[in-house]
Design goal:
There is one protein chain. With 462 residues, this protein is α/β, with parallel strands linked by helices. It has three domains: 6-112, Gyrase A, domain 2; 134-212 and 395-455, Four Helix Bundle (Hemerythrin (Met), subunit A); 219-386, P-loop containing nucleotide triphosphate hydrolases (Rossmann fold), CATH 3.40.50. Helices cover 45% and strands 17% of the residues. The chain has helices at residues 28-35, 94-106, 116-123, 129-140, 144-154, 157-181, 192-210, 213-221, 235-243, 286-301, 317-325, 365-379, 383-388, 398-419, 424-442, 448-455; strands at residues 6-9, 16-24, 36-38, 51-58, 65-74, 85-92, 110-111, 223-228, 261-267, 270-276, 304-310, 331-336, 356-358. The strands form two sheets. A seven-stranded mixed sheet has the order 3-4-5-6-2-1-7, with helices on one face. The chain has a six-stranded mixed sheet with strand order 9-10-8-11-12-13, with helices on both faces. Strand 9 (261-267) and strand 10 form a beta hairpin. The longest helix is centred in the middle third of the chain and has 25 residues, at 157-181. It is flat. The two termini are 16 Å apart. 40% of the residues are buried.
Length: 462
């Protein structure tokens, strides 16, 4: 990869106001200069960094003009990839953008792999690995809170916390190594109490980061939220109310929803990946029965269950069956149709360990959205995160959580070894393993297959 110049389309495919073809590498300027003619006749090779010039894209072999465009020059090392970068900003259209990209490839560039621009930024020291992962989080964020967390991580909030922990452990390791390797020198001996204090302090910091993992995962990925209940209780009406559109078909005929309907909605900055399921009931209809089976499977995978009940009709054994199925889940009960005469009271449900909202999706849809938003934030413990997102380090990825768990395990073993009175060189073995695990988060220690897996998540052009 080193020494090659790569090119890709950096804007979404389709018609738009602008399209961008990005080149990065040692020959980026030379290739762009051959295909771009500035209006003033000057060469791109002399164009200063962080400047743009108007001109046209021309095939140097045929003289055929492809488009009027602007060329943006960003010279190494002060660019996104820390290499020479040129962006050709042309009119947005599938054909014109593809033609300009193909011309760049004909003139010597190679088509970039997914995430290769960001991967080069990491390999060239422009970003660490946690910051590089924050780039894709930023691109894929569904909510304002998710965006704030991604921006904060891109600016190094998590990386700084990891560096702080590693620095403390390195200081501890240096003291231990000095006392082991140079006992005859006049160096201050490491105090045993100091080793214990250092290990415990690092463990506390790691545990504090691990405590944010659930919040961070929710803010990055959203809550997989399953809407469930008997047929015709208002599940599809709830979906439509939350989306503020008629996404699901609503009728008085039970069994209308035969398959799952999935959408994403933001409530108070938290993304809900809403899944409206088929009403759970016994049915002789094969298609509906398959939909019910799918609903039951989704209940097991859900982060949050919104269980809808109809207050206007008598409770049935099916109601209690579904309540029992979702018992123990992170669940909110929505008692719907309170605008109609009630057929039962809340105490008829028995002992319920979930928040209960009495609602009318027909009469008060706006109140339903507001009340449900607050209930979800309280239930998943995000009320405090809602006010502090973007201002503290959060663990948002399973890879980071796993590395922290490994570091915690090694430090706990190191502390047990130390408290058992064993030699300091044995204490140091697990201490260095913990440092290795922490380094995997920021990429100071990283395996090649990990890099490939991370950057495969990116789109081409980023």
């Amino acid at each position: 990869m080193a020494g090659e110049t790569i090119a890709a389309v950096a804007t979404p495919l389709g018609e738009g106001g602008i399209g961008i073809v990005r080149l990065s590498g040692p020959e980026a300027l030379a290739i762009a200069d051959r295909m771009f003619q500035r209006k003033d006749g000057q060469s791109l090779l002399q164009q200063p960094t962080y400047t743009l010039r108007y001109g046209k894209v021309v095939d140097p072999k045929t003289g055929r003009k492809l488009d009027e465009a602007i060329a943006v020059v960003m010279r190494a090392p002060h660019s996104y990839t820390a290499e020479d970068v040129v962006e050709i900003q042309c009119h947005g259209g599938v054909v014109v953008v593809r033609e300009i990209l193909n011309l760049a490839l004909e003139l010597g560039a190679r088509l970039a792999e997914p995430g290769e621009f960001t991967k080069r930024a990491f390999l060239n020291g422009r970003l660490d690995l946690a910051q590089a992962e924050a780039v894709i989080d930023l691109v894929q964020s569904h909510t304002r809170l998710g965006l704030e967390v991604a921006v904060d991580q891109l600016e190094g909030s998590l990386s700084r916390r990891i560096a702080q922990i590693r620095e403390g452990l390195y200081d501890l390791a240096v003291g231990i190594e000095a006392s082991i390797d140079f006992p005859e020198d006049d160096l201050p001996e490491v105090e045993l109490d100091e080793v214990e204090r250092g290990l415990r302090a690092s463990l506390e910091q790691i545990e504090a980061l691990l405590a944010t993992a659930d919040d961070g995962k929710i803010l990055r990925e959203g809550l997989k939220t399953v809407i469930t209940g008997k047929p015709n209780v208002g599940k599809s009406s709830l979906l439509n109310t939350l989306l503020d559109e008629n996404r699901a078909l609503v009728t008085d005929i039970p069994g209308t929803t035969r398959d799952t309907i999935e959408e994403v909605v933001s409530l108070k900055g938290v993304a809900l990946r809403l899944i409206d399921t088929a009403g759970i009931r016994e049915s002789s209809d094969l298609v509906e029965r398959l939909g019910v089976e799918r609903s039951l499977q989704l209940l097991e995978e859900a982060d949050l269950v919104l269980h809808v009940l109809d207050r206007s009709v008598a409770l049935t054994p099916e109601d209690f069956q579904i309540l029992d199925m979702t018992k123990g889940s992170r669940r909110i009960l929505l008692v719907n149709k309170t605008d109609l005469p009630p057929a039962w009271e809340l105490q008829d449900l028995g002992e319920i360990d979930s928040p209960v909202l009495e609602i009318s999706l027909v009469a008060e849809p706006e109140r339903v959205v507001a009340a449900l938003s607050e209930a979800i934030l309280d239930l998943v413990g995000l009320a405090a995160v809602h006010s502090s997102a973007g201002s503290r380090a959060l663990v948002t990825r399973a890879r980071h959580k796993q590395a922290l768990q490994e570091a915690k395990r090694f430090l706990e073993e190191s502390l047990r070894t130390h408290l058992a009175g064993l030699p300091l060189d044995l204490v140091a073995v697990d201490l260095y393993q913990a440092l290795e695990a922490l380094g995997e988060i920021t990429g100071e220690t990283v395996r090649e297959n990990v890099l490939d897996r991370i950057f495969a998540e990116f789109c081409i052009g980023k």
